[in-house]
Every structure is written in structure tokens, then in C-alpha cells.
Amino acid sequence: MTCPLCHRPTRWEGNPWRPFCCERCQVTDLGTWAAERYRIPGLPLIAEIDMREPLTRDERNNGGREEADGDASNT
Predict the structure, then answer these.
(1) Which phi and psi angles does 22 have, rounded to 5°?
(2) Residues near 26 by beta carbon (within 8 Å), at least 6 away in sequence
(3) Does residue 74 sit within a domain?
(4) What is the CATH number of the domain that holds 19?
(5) Could you give the number of structural domains in the chain?
(6) Cα–Cα distance between 57 and 67 in angstroms, integer?
(7) Does residue 70 lie within any of the structural domains?
(8) Are the CB atoms for 62 and 75 separated by under 8 Å?
């Protein structure tokens, strides 16, 4: 198999960094995930919220979700 980062041949058996060839490639890949540079294409799952404007009472009590009938008071 080949290292997914540097593409050098690597062994699976006995390799503590698998599927990577070495600790450097493993840590580099982890850093890329932590910096959010890997992305899955598509629409964002969470809408961006403008934190400059305070939430209304309904938004605070309801987590920003609207009820199906538009009235959050009957929950």
C-alpha cells in the first residue's frame, strides 16, 4: 500500500502509523484536519449566525428553530 500523504510505499503489518508511512505524515494529516483544510463539498449543515445582533427571546428559548406551526409558546 502507499502512504495517502506522500505516496511512498509502506507496510500495513507492524506499522504504528498506518495507513501513513511515518509519524510525520500522520501528524501532518491530523494538522490538516484540525485546520479544517479538508472539506466535503456541499451545502453547509449549520447556517451562519450573525453574532453581532442579539438573539430574540424565541431564538434563545428555541435554539433558533421555528416550530412547525410558527408558535414556540406551546412547547
Answers:
(1) -155, 170
(2) 17, 20
(3) no
(4) 3.30.50.10
(5) 1
(6) 14
(7) no
(8) yes
